[in-house]
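Marked as duplicate of an earlier ticket. Keeping the data here for the record.
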Amino acid sequence: MLSRAQHPLEQELDVIQRFADTYQKQFAVLIRELNGPPVPGASSQGLRLCVEAVNMMLESHRTLAMALQDLRQAA
């Protein structure tokens, strides 16, 4: 069975789910703010949030790719 190989993959999927949930909430707040009256400094907060989110996506994609490679090599 692949239980040992699935473990890192399951961990990464959990991280991806938590990442998506967390950033989706943060982006929802930012979108509401952007749809409202202008707020000083909001654009820099939005830029930072976007950069952080992209960085996290790249990291999770890298980790997921490594886990899938390990799974493929174990098969």
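See parent ticket for discussion. The chain has a mean pLDDT of 83.
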